[in-house]
């Protein structure tokens, strides 16, 4: 928005002065004001040219300009309102008037039409080299040297024995359950505060999901709730076949007590680290604690292959079987022979090339997202209404998404803050709706952390802010300023 004084003219101004003012202001419009300072209408270079053709002299005043009503905005407008008005009328400038009808600013399309999205892909330079190599060598179809190298390089990076590159993180969870022989009549315990992709594969296998609450310390699976669920399962004579622990928004769960409980009851732990590649728990890479671990490379994740995932384990036999099942379970025969049902779950050689390039900048992407979160937390430290996702001393979180809650006493809930941010073209989203609240899982069991459900409260009060590793300082500042204005206003 611009200071309006250099753009203001009156009907007493002549064409020569008006053209000089237009040239100096450089905005493409002038503001015609009345003697008492109130705004009358906008004047464009086209208006001035038409007037000059009509009167034939630069000495003529603007008195003969038609008296029209220009489009204006009132103070307190949102970016969305301004853009909708501009788009509807195919204009690029709109004056802003105060309560007295005086112009206090001019909104320009080029200054406000940038939308800040939640988490966008952040591509580098190396990815293209690996993809072009795939084209040069004609390794376009699924599998190939990039797939083999991507598996090896990721396993080395996180410090685990073996990895299988797949079409999605969901496919990786599905295969993990298949490898653990989960089937009809079995139970699988799963974090409730997560995306549906963590739980859907349980149903793919005909098993029954049972959901486990979060704790206050990490927002991830509560050891207390898991202990209560396992004890209940033992009493019923129906322990789960597996426990899926989800590492939420780039932070590991408290793995030691969760692993101890699973060992005590003889239950396999699957670590859904789809959101936490690059995070650490007590110095060890997230995703490497369970019998099997899962990563996602979806378009909004910390690194991306457009779409894809990885299943990891120190058990070589399980990963080899995962590759077999993911390639339609084709038997080693000269003809197409299948002795069991498989899946089309393997990653393509081209996408694996993108992944190899992305893997080389993972550390930079993690640091960039952490910096965004720390900037939010520091810049809004005096806004008591906001409480940030905790990072326990044992955690090194990536902050894939910067998550916080807004306290009820602020007079504003998370839905209202999200709506107000959207009005300023800033994308924010609620925290995951817990699985036990989803209609499709309404009949499934649920174990709370304590007397009240932690995940219910987090969902009701929480939101995720834009967190991309390619965000600029100016974008972060704009979000901070908007939140401060909205919450305090």
Number of strands: 21
Major sheet characteristics: 8 strands, mixed
What's the overall average pLDDT, rounded? 93
- What is the rounded Rg? 29 Å
Structural class assignment = alpha/beta
Read across the widest sheet, the strand sequence of neighbours is 7-15-14-11-10-8-9-20
Number of helices: 16
Strand-residue fraction?
15-25%
Helicity level: 25-40%
Low-confidence stretches: none
Shape designation: elongated
How far apart, in Å, are the first and last alpha carbons?
A: 21 Å
Brief characterization of the structure:
By secondary structure, the chain is of the alpha/beta class.
Task: Write the topology of this structure.
Elements: E1 8-9, H1 15-25, E2 29-33, E3 39-44, H2 45-55, E4 73-74, H3 79-89, E5 93-97, E6 103-108, H4 109-112, H5 126-136, H6 145-158, E7 162-166, H7 169-179, E8 187-191, H8 200-204, E9 208-212, H9 223-236, E10 242-246, H10 255-265, E11 268-272, E12 280-281, E13 284-285, E14 292-296, E15 309-313, H11 316-326, H12 349-359, H13 362-379, E16 386-388, E17 395-396, E18 402-406, H14 414-423, E19 429-430, E20 445-447, H15 454-461, E21 462-465, H16 473-488
Give a structural overview.
The protein has 489 residues and is of the alpha/beta class. The protein is built from 16 helices and 21 strands. An eight-stranded mixed β-sheet has the order 7-15-14-11-10-8-9-20, with helices on both faces. A four-stranded antiparallel β-sheet has the order 16-18-21-19. Strands 1-2-3 form a three-stranded mixed β-sheet. A hairpin with a 2-residue loop joins strand 12 (280-281) and strand 13 (284-285). The radius of gyration is 29 Å and the shape is elongated.
